[in-house]
Fold these 3 entries.
Entry 1:
Amino acid sequence: MSEPLRLGVVGLGRAFMLMLPTFAHHPLVRLVAAADPRSEARRQFEADFSTPELAARVYDSVEALCADGAVEAIYIASPHQLHLEHVRLAVGHRKHILVEKPMALSIADCRAMIAAARAAGVHLLVGHSHSYDAPYLKSAELIRTGRFGRPRMIVATTYTDFLYRPRRPEELDTSQGGGVVFSQAAHQVDVVRLLAGGVVSSVRAVTGRFDPARPTEGAYQAFLNFSGDASATLTYSGYGRYDTDEHLGWIGELGQRRDPDGYGAARRGLARVSTPEGEAALKNARAYGAAKGAISAPAAAAEGAISAPAAAAGHNHFGHIVVSCERADLRPMADGVMIYADDRCWLEPLAVPDVPRAEVVDELYAAVKQNIAPLHSGEWGMATLEVCLAILESAASGREIVLEHQIAAG
């Protein structure tokens, strides 16, 4: 058995909650320390991840966590606008880094993060984004064989209730990284870049702000030109009506089985509060330490027997995507990749994962322990952010935006 990577966490919020089943159950990673300003979250982490052999350590400052000599790598899941500051603290102590998407809110911050990691000689990875998901990695692998010809056209469509999940005020302020372009386009752009080869040459887009009570982008449509004559259309809506999971067998974004009778639940939940403070409290009630994550009770964790995650119905995914290659159409789904060739169609199946999002840890571990260059590097994350910023700029100006910081996939 390989020695697990000792991981520290900055920020025990929603992003951590989504990654928690992966970190808690993947054999190649061990959560050993965390920093968060909330005392209840620190207490919960200490209880969940302490063992008789090793006590989990908790800190109320990021700098103290970064100085912990037992930590090899740090997962930065703090608010978007703090990523640069926290990356600098981590690299100052020679820690490898997995920073949540979006990598930052400006290209200048991305470049500073990349330069700091390079100067310190540490790996900088960006994620989780859905381009780590097995169906998209499998699709990219099939495309790269050349069997189906070059990808020429991609359609990516995702409809969710994102904008009506409980939000803090800054999450509804685009200038602070709020809205669906920063938080959701980062997934969709990453996926289509992976499938089309990575290098976007230009972007034209529109965005939608359909609800004055939620004053940020809740929807967008974008047209991406790629080098090599490929193009992609991206549509996203977070307004909580139509849901693209309907066309993925009601398997949700996290690979979970969904109940279609839950229609409108996000809007109904939000209707119970009437002030920004009430909405923030509703969000905090779902946070780690207030609402337990998908692991066992602290007593079981103390015995090193953290329970298995709930059985998945399929892989993580990000809506309805079709890649039209020269000799076939490919449709990544929660259970594999459907291939539509000239004479027949078939499914290239993928086994249901034992550990969700295991690919994130696999890539991080390979970078840190085996010095294998990651796909989701800082440069990759910056290229995706450039597309997101171009969506906002094109929507504001009505112009096509030419890009400068793109890199190829692999």
Entry 2:
Amino acid sequence: MNLNIWLTFLLASILISLSPGVGAIKSMNSGISYGFQSSIPTILGLQLGYGIQIFIVAIGLGAIITSSAAAFLTIKWGGVLYLLWLGIDKWRSAGSLVSIESKVNSPKKQFWQSAAVNLTNPKATVFLVALFPQFLSSSNTSHETQLLLMATTLIIVDLTIMFSYAALASQLNSFIKSESRLKLINKTFGSFFILAALALLSYQKN
């Protein structure tokens, strides 16, 4: 994977983590309910679930790449369409953070609940299946190495942004829960996903 492709993937990773989703909502709710420091188990749990999802998807894609180029190309085109649909869905979604979670005093319970949230989130699996093929190239670097680099990038970026969400939420309670502001955030990132899908449509030649 050359530097330009990785930088593009890095940007995509940042947009993915910034976009309001299950992990972001969980992190913000935890920051509001417990404060920043007590949100650490929640965020680490999210990364465990996310990491397992990434590993499963990477293994599956690796098998598909070696067995069927046509199947991989189908997944790649399906990924573009999914990103387009996701952008439209984000644009139309309401500005709701959902209710603040009840107090959970045990850090261990926070950790495992959060891991389960990401591990059982089917949207995360579909999104990863849609995302990875767009950045895999037939360079001298093996597909396994490229997938490992992308997985590491996703986890580091998501960890950083989830901590930032929890910290901001613990300080900006009323701002984070504003329906109008959340609607604007959803529309903004929905637009980014649509633009990304359109850009990837013109990037199918390689």
Entry 3:
Amino acid sequence: MISLKKLRTVTAAAFLTVAAVAAHATPTFTVNPNSNGLATQGSIFTADSLNGVSSARISYTGTSGGAYNYTGVGYIDYTSFSLNDSGISAVITRDNFDYGIYATFTQTFSCSSFLAPGVSCAVTSITLNLWGDPGNDNTYNKATVNTNASVNTVGTQVLLGTVTEVVAGTAGINALGGAFQNINTNFNLTAAGQLFFISPNPFYQFAFSAFNNTSQGLSCNGNTNVSTGGATNGCAGSFTSVAINNESGITDFNNVPEPASLAIFGIGLMGLVSLRRRKS
């Protein structure tokens, strides 16, 4: 039989594992908005996520090896920080007042068929830059079916961080016609980013983003004639370009990719079961 002392030890280890996973669910970070010339009246604050709105144009680039390939170009306009699902006052963060936070990105996708409502795709690559906009005076140009989403910058921009690798990601158009994306990536701060995101130090290695919208935020260059089976937004029939707008979402950070967190939890429980069997 397993001894009470060893059972307590293993049980404690299992609970520590569970606690570690729970802690990874919404890890916090500390920001100094009065850095890099972004703000002067803000206060150092703690948050666990950035909230924003994204726009992107997704274009068909061809078929290879049975996969239907697409490229997306767009931006994320981060309008606020949150902690425990509550927004942090802009009086503290100064975001969207003294400065702006935004990302520009290029992605590639691989789909099992032509993109359409009900089709999901794997995110195969990403290049993303996270920027600070001193003065908050940039202009954001939403995507159309003919033009990429873009940012017209004013003055010198501050590069805070970069993303270069996809850990895991899925995106597509759901059965109701809304676009969605859930992606885990690496994340690296620049020297300027280390002055802005001041803790933890070193900062988290991974970023997690989830964005979605409704069919009203979607337009395509397909059939718009409803009487012949089309859709008013053009997302029917054969379309090769999709403009995604009003896609809202969240980005947070961690040192452990989400699948690995679940694996750690599973390993902790299996260890407890294995030791109990071995000692019985």
